[in-house]
Amino acid sequence: MKRLLSTMACLWVLTAAPTAFADAPVSPGAAMTEAAQKFLAALTPEQTKVATMDFNNPARRDWHNIPKPTRKGLQIREMPPALRVLCHNLVKAGLSESGYEKAVHIMALESYLHIGEQGKGPFRDPERYFLTIFGTPAHDTTWGWSFEGHHLSLNFVIKNDQVIGETPSFWGANPATVIAFIEGGPETGVRTLLDEEQLAFDLVNSLTPEQQKEAIIAEKAPADYRNAGNPVTPRANMEGICATELTPEQQHILMSLLATYNYHFAAEIAKTRMDEIKANGLKDVYFAWLGATRPGVGHSYRIQGPTFVLELINVQTDPAGNPANHIHSVWRSLTREFGLE
Prior knowledge:
Blueprint: H1 7-14, H2 28-41, H3 45-51, E1 52-53, E2 74-75, H4 81-94, H5 97-116, E3 130-134, E4 142-149, E5 152-159, E6 162-165, E7 169-173, H6 194-206, H7 209-215, E8 216-218, E9 241-242, H8 248-262, H9 267-280, E10 286-291, E11 299-304, E12 308-314, E13 327-333
Parallel strand pairs: 1-3, 8-10
Antiparallel strand pairs: 2-3, 3-4, 4-5, 5-6, 5-7, 7-13, 9-10, 10-11, 11-12, 12-13
Helix pairs in contact: 1-5, 2-4, 6-8
């Protein structure tokens, strides 16, 4: 499907290096280390003060998906073209090619919001995303970085060139489905987080009435995901239906849904996370649904296992007032959030 980015986002992407990921080092951690070193080397002293923090600074765990008036880090808008290239290279080092494309589309939707809300929305700008480096990137150190703005929050920790933390990982979209075309924006019908939502619909609607009695834990979806912006991962009793009570076909849909989120990241990171899920088995993985089981009405799901919590919420309206067309989704680790053990 042909996808159009906003004019501002297009200009931003065009300043970046080509999207060829094959030349990156084998280890994503090593790729991030080298990309961060090149980014830091290109900063002015004034930019360095804004873009860097001590690794142990509490602000490293200060995250949120909302359009905050102030954020830590150096803003894309404040970077000259050559520095934007280096910023992009760091983001690419942590993501798969499809994950990077998805991130760019999330940012492009900010132009859609700006036009759709006629400039009345807060801070709608595809260049209002911020990069922060924590600590000193080197092949034998522990350091981290975050790239964050409205509807996108990436948080990585690298130790000795190994990725030891990649959450919270937040991906949102407003509008979730583009209903009305705006010049320079994504075309009508584009769903930035297509599989993240559709696979869950496929799963819940494949359940038998008896299975749905277990899986659907609330008739109404919550207003938002749990612990929004909180550095503490939500921990609660397992709810919904256990994955072992699903048919093989339903289990396949569930694993495909989990893989969709994992493969936002570079292949080695994604494989590590999927291997971790498979090693723990399905006996402690639960799928819970809240709200309507059809599009256009507020809905939400939670998937929880021994090492992770995944949530998606779609209840808010888009700028045109269409209901349940505004996605929030977040993957959080129960074992290594922000690189903590």
